[in-house]
Every structure is written in structure tokens, then in C-alpha cells.
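Hi everyone,

Forwarding the result from last night's run.
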Amino acid sequence: MSFDRRITPVRPDLADERLRGRVEAERYTTGTIRRVGASFAPLHRHPSREAPVDTQALFGETVTVYDEHEGWAWVQLHEDGYVGYLPSDVLREPGPAPTHKVAAIRTFVYPGPSLKLPYQDYLTLNARLAVVDTEGDYARLADGGWVHAPHLASLDATEPDCVGVAERFLHTPYLWGGKTSLGIDCSGLAQTVLAAAGIKAPRDSDMQERELGAAIEVTPDLGGLARGDLVFWKGHVGLMMDATNFIHATGHSMTVMIEPLSVAEERIRRTSYGPISSIKRL
């Protein structure tokens, strides 16, 4: 059988117990549950800081740890199933279940309920946290620290317009594997803004193209498009803002940018990405 290595926890020496009988490995394990305790953490393809970063895990995200060795944890992210290596020191015991998520593009963690205190850390959009108390406009976290409460939302809250969320990332630097306002890539932008709108999406553009929405016709004049349509190339994705304009994270400008789709299509078609492969409507 063929498995996608990105979302299949299997190595020659170890595999998820759920895969017993489907894949061969020297041993199998159910793993242990942990949560990410850093504002965000890089998920590397191999246990090395020089290895490619496939994605990022956000604060409060639940992971299954299958193996730990020399400061690295081999994990699977629960949110999108991605498998890779996190630095062990970013992981914590599960602790109290998250009660809220970050709704602002970024928010600071303070040692007390005051904006005049020096911040200790920051959290990014969609990070999950457990609130145990409030004082004025500040929420106290189970992990310690205080966050401006209006920057938080309940776990079931959803943004009404995913494209409006994408616009908040305008000019964010492009970062391969990134999922935060400090740096983000094309499929990370799509996944992040869809999550804020309550739409679960896989991590990479080929997965998103395969699993999201219904295909609509790609006409020669690129007509008939609407806000929120997802436009795909081989290895790239962006969102329509209206019938003509398009927002995406791109290595062309190394930022999140807005441009007419016709301009982007002409430029991208001349690269290794080729022509538009599909347009999907959610």
C-alpha cells in the first residue's frame, strides 16, 4: 500500500499502533499525548535544525509523541495529521483543556493584567489556551501569564469571512512552512484563514486542492469568480478577494500580496508551477 509520508506516522523502526497489519515496522506504539507550549514551533522533516521545515505547530496544539531521542520528538499533529520532528523542549503535559483561541493576528502574554508590564511571550492567530480567570480586560492563563481578553474567542467562534482574515496578513513576510503573522507560506495562509472561519483544511496545497470545495470552470478570461474562491497551481494556492483580485503568500515578492489574478496567472504560468490547475468554491 502507498501512504503519504506527510500524514502517516511510520518509520522502518516504528509506527503508530493503528497501522499494525497495514505497514511493516520493527515495533508499534500508541504514543503519548502532549501539547505545544511554545508560541509556535517548527515541524522538521528530520531530527535536525538544518532539516526542511514542513509546517509549524501552534501554542496549545495537541500532538501524539511516538518517540523522543536526543532532544527531538517524532510526533503527529492532531489538527491536520502532519508528521515530523519537534524540539522536545516545546512540549508540555496536556494540562487543562483549552477553553479559548486567539482571534487577533497576534497577542502578547504579560506577567500581570496590565499592558504596561514587559511582555513575556506572544501568541498567534488560532493558538489554543486555557483561561482560568479574568480581571478587567485581561484573561489569566492556566499556563501562567495574562492576555488581553478581547483578543480571544471561544473555541467554537468563527470568522464570517475568511478573505477578511487573509487581508489582515497583508505584507506578512513569506516563510516556507510558516503559519503565523511573522512568516507564512501560501498553503499556510489558506489553512490558517479557513481555520479561523471554522473550515478544517489540510496543510499543503495539493491536499487542499484535492479535498476542499467544488471545482468551477476555469475560463480563458478568468471570469465568473467570487470572493473566497481558491485558485490552485501545482504547488501554489491563493484566495480571490472579488471577481478579479487575488491574495496570496508568494515567493515572488516574499510577502502576502494582492494583485489581479490575470497578472498573477500570466507570471506564474511561465514558472515551474505552470497554468492554473483548478479553482475550487467552498
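The mean pLDDT is 97.

Cheers,
N.
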